[in-house]
Amino acid sequence: MEIRQAYRGDLEEIMAVLEAAKGIMRASGNHGQWVDGYPGEDVILEDIRLGHGFVVETADGTGCASVAGYFAFIPSPEPTYSEIFDGQWLDDTLPYHVVHRIGSYPHIHGIFSAIIDWCFTHDRNIRIDTHRDNLIMQHNLLKHGFTYCGIIYLASGSPRLAYQRL
Q1: To 10 degrees, what angle do helices 41-50 and 11-27 make?
Q2: What is the mean pLDDT of residues 55-69?
């Protein structure tokens, strides 16, 4: 697997990956996250424009690479993380990066680990949030050493479980 910055030309493959990720969510009982067309092409194109969008590529049997995963890696501050409820961040003074919009195909394993490993080579202070119904993500976060810190609220008012790893 290789991780590289996403380009506008990757958009079609990225959107297919994100649709597959929505399928994983729905199949596991998470019907409240990534609804109403989110994340749409406009969100992904903005990630790419800002240099925050990344793809995970895998090679097929012929050596051709294809997009198997996507994520946004965004430097602090994250406005929705300015207030946390029913808990606290592990550290609220150091700069951090946020990982948003992680998606992959269900049949390709190791994408989440590859993303987190890559992120920690670029920053040792990572925050991430997820929907209460996203049990797969919660399991992966704890498995990879993240600590549950409390609840944050998106701009829409929707609550999210917040995690941090230093």
Answers
A1: 120
A2: 83
pTM over 0.90: yes
* CA neighbours closer than 13 Å in the CB half-sphere of residue 77: 8
According to DSSP, the residues that pair with 152 across neighbouring strands are 160
Where residue 83 falls (left for φ over 0; alpha for ψ -120 to 50; beta otherwise) is beta
Strands (E), the chain: 2-5, 53-59, 65-75, 97-104, 126-130, 147-153, 159-165
Proportion of the chain above pLDDT 70, given as a percent: 98
Domains annotated for the chain, with CATH where assigned, are 2-165 (3.40.630.30)
User: Using one digit for the tens of pLDDT, what is the confidence trace for 112-163?
Assistant: 999 999 999 999 999 999 999 999 999 999 999 999 999 999 999 999 999 9
CB of 29 within 8 A of CB of 133?
Answer: yes
Q: How many residues does the chain have?
A: 166
CB neighbours of residue 114 within 10 Å: 20
Q: How far is the C-alpha of 69 from the C-alpha of 112, rounded, in Å?
A: 9
Q: What gap in Å lies between CA 138 and CA 141, rounded to an integer?
A: 5
Residue type (1 letter), 162? A
